[in-house]
Amino acid sequence: MADTLNARAPRARAPQTGAAPDPRRRAQRSKRRLAFLFVLPALLLLGALVVYPVVFSVGRSLFDASGEQFVGAANYTEIFQDPATLKAIRNSTIWVVVAPVLLTGLGLVLAVLTEKVRWATAFKLVLFLPMAVSFLAAGIIFRLAYEQDPDRGVINAAVVAVHDSFGDPAAYPTARAREDQGLDGAAGGPYTTTEALRPGGSVSLGFVGVAPDAMPSEARPAAVQKPGADEIGGVAYLDFTPGGGGTPGKVDPAEKGLPGMTVEAVRDGTVAASATTGADGSFRFEGLADGEYTVRLPASNFAAPYQGVNWLGPALVTPAIIGAYLWVWTGFAMVLIGAGLAAIPRDALEAARMDGATEGQIFRKITVPLLAPVLTVVFVTLVINVMKVFDLVYIIAPGPVQEEANVLATRMWLVSFGGGNDQGLGSALSVLLLLLVVPAMIFNVRRFRRSRS
Asked: Which residue ranges are recorded for the region named Disordered (predicted)?
């Protein structure tokens, strides 16, 4: 019986040394190999275009300008000793502090306002259009717009138009007195008669330097009116005869008066009377007491015309370039913040309105806190972008003030390739720029990961 049971009992199988692998593990390995093959081209590009240049730049920054002598940290020390590089660091700091804050604030305000306008889509499209313009084209546009000559720069044309609407421009900015004709003064005025006059006398004040097409349309042939016993008269005229001829210092028939000039009668340093020349250039001071007077033409008659603001001068070139940057990137900030605004639960806003909250309170205490994650991402993204700004600075800033407008990126290019030919210092600047950008990038990446989880 025992033999029968032993015969029927199952026998243990001997281990097979050549067993086939688990099909699931084999499928996973196959998937990993396939994924690696797909990722390999991207890894090669990343290594060739990012990793290798970074490693090479770090190594190159430790050598001198020729690349032959090892200098260690000397290039990094020179960064903080070179005045031009310190200006670039200062300007980069201004950019990082000012531009992202203004852009985030403008984007927030515009995103909220566009929700309340009827043509919100068209408005957003118009504001976002500058993003389609390259930085090269935007730089050229604003370089022309910032021209100081009002005939070429549209911004100064508007500034001059507003200025002149509140103040009268000088009548004859190019006029100057003929020499040895009885007037004392330098170009631009004021001019004063060298000889004193008494009531009943008259004087002729001849000027040159006024182009015929710059003469007022109401100008008439110059004429001297005979003054009364208690008056002093005279004429201010263009002492130039068209076609030649005429006698200098004498009013000739073909010469025209200078209308609209302010003339003053001065006695003992005090203005006793003033008058404005008529269409024929004549003027008259009435009711003068007996005594000696000099005739003065104030400098306001000859002041140079207002030419607007020197936007591209040393003092304003950086704010002017930041203004161009705002024009390009405001639409970007507005659209991103607008997308976050659209995701805010409307129940919270309606509940606040039902409780009697004003729109300002809703904006400050509900909208802004709920948009804080979006605002942070926009701000950090703009900080990264601002640190790398190059095109606008290089194109807009004129050569004489280029150093005043430089940021780290432009300084790096100028030192390496723009005439400095010191790629050791240029590589050190690029490494510094990378070290400044990396923390902001890490912050953004971590925030994206937290938002996914």
From this structure: 1-26
77-80 long-range contacts, Cβ below 8 Å, gap at least 24? 78/425, 78/428, 79/425, 79/428, 79/429, 79/432
Residue type, position 312, single letter: L
Under 8 Å CB-to-CB from 445, ≥6 apart: which residues?
Answer: none
Phi, psi of 294 (to 5 degrees): -115, 150
Q: Superfamily assignment of 74-157+311-452 in CATH?
A: MetI-like (1.10.3720.10)
Q: Tens digit of pLDDT for each residue in 410-438?
A: 999 999 887 778 889 989 999 998 888 88
Three-state secondary-structure class, residue 217: coil
For residues 297 and 274, what is the distance between their CA atoms, to the nearest angstrom? 10
Query: Two tokens at 368?
Result: 């802004």
Starting at the edge strand that comes first in sequence, how are the strands of the sheet with 232-238 ordered?
A: 176-177, 202-208, 232-238, 282-285
**421 vs 282: CA distance, rounded Å:** 67
Query: Does residue 29 sit in helix, strand or coil?
Result: helix
Which pLDDT tens digit goes with each residue over 208-235? 888 877 888 888 988 887 888 889 999 9
Q: How far apart are CA 272 and CA 282, in angstroms?
A: 18
Cβ atoms of 191 and 177 closer than 8 Å: yes
Instruction: Indicate where the chain has its CATH 1.10.3720.10 domain(s).
Output: 74-157+311-452
User: What residue type is assigned to position 194 of the chain?
Assistant: T
Please tell me the distance from the alpha carbon of residue 33 to that of residue 38, in angstroms, as a whole number: 9
Query: DSSP for 106-135?
Result: HHHHHHHHHTTSTTHHHHHHHHHGGGGS-H
CA dihedral 374, 375, 377, 379 (to 10 degrees): 160
Spatial contact of 391 and 141, defined as CB atoms under 8 Å apart: no
Total-model pTM: 0.74
